[in-house]
Amino acid sequence: MPTELEELVGFIADPRPDIRVLSTKHLLPFSTSETAIFKVDDLKPVKNLKLLIKDHPDIAEHVISLLINLSADQVILESLATDEKFLNEVLRQIVIPTEPNANLLSMLLANLAKWDSLKRILDKKQQAPDELGSHDVVMNQLVDLFVKGADGAYNKNADFDHLAYLFADLTKHAEIRHYFVRKQEYDGIVPLTKLKVFTEYKSDVRRKGVASTIKNVAFDIPSHPLFLSEDDIDILPYILLPIMGNEEYDEEEMMSMLPDLQLLPPDKQRDADPNIIQTHVETLLLLSSTREGREQMRNVKVYPIIRETHLRVDSEGVRDACERLVQVLMRDEADPDKADPEKAGRVKEIEDGDHDGSEDDDDQIIEV
Prior knowledge:
Layout: H1 4-10, H2 17-27, H3 40-51, H4 57-70, H5 74-81, H6 84-94, H7 102-112, H8 138-148, H9 163-170, H10 174-180, H11 191-195, H12 204-217, H13 224-228, H14 236-240, H15 251-256, H16 274-287, H17 291-299, H18 302-312, H19 316-330, H20 336-339
Helix pairs in contact: 2-4, 4-7, 6-7, 7-9, 9-12, 12-16, 16-19, 18-19
């Protein structure tokens, strides 16, 4: 005889909406611990759930929440991430300005990006809503959704913060990195410049995801001149400000710093999350891969900022990253081995939790 849970799973696709809503609601607590019951009959329950994301919003809320949790299972994740019709429906719904479950869809997309083939999203196109003012390329729509949707400005039901985690995972792939550093024809803007303004944002999720995205894109060494140019991406102020506090510098050091970093208010606080600080320092280490990058960082006095960060942040990971960067910046350029940042320790892409031996938040499967 089937167990009560197995019977409950059987009601997911019941013709009566009141039964569907009760079934999906009561199954939610078991979606992180009893995934086997959703994998019976060749994943029939999962296939039903995929169809029900278009159901009444109250039912779809439970359905999407179930799929978010179930995507921690690799078999189910593959079924979701490789299903073209399902992915297209998620992308269609998330850009609707009145979609009540847009935040949940953002979380689901972030989890689907754990499956490498989701990088094909770069090739997808769909008509953008007039309210979004975007482009038919889906990646452009998602970036614009993330920017314009902050604080419910586009959709009163959503802030789209978790799209930052989607971008962080997608930028493990070279083709997605290239997208983020190239001007888009429809607006003439480099996508990464749209994200950089959120490095000091109030949302922890946004700051973490954006910091990780910037770091991963910085693995594209040929784009470093764009990163460092004031006329292009101009990334340095946006990764240095979050790691700075209200400490004072001597006048000579301060006057050589970037204008945005000078004369900060006495109540200036550095980011409270040491993992985010470490990510930014590791981005600086990546940008020191070229001699031009190292010289620019020396000229704008990055070393004193790293010195103070090393002293004031109680984190082994942050201190280690600071020490590696200092080794690169302070060594003699005449010795190529000593000037090579690779000799100071490699920096990995954010894909397997490399900050302090634990998984980074934007790398974990999100659960509801």
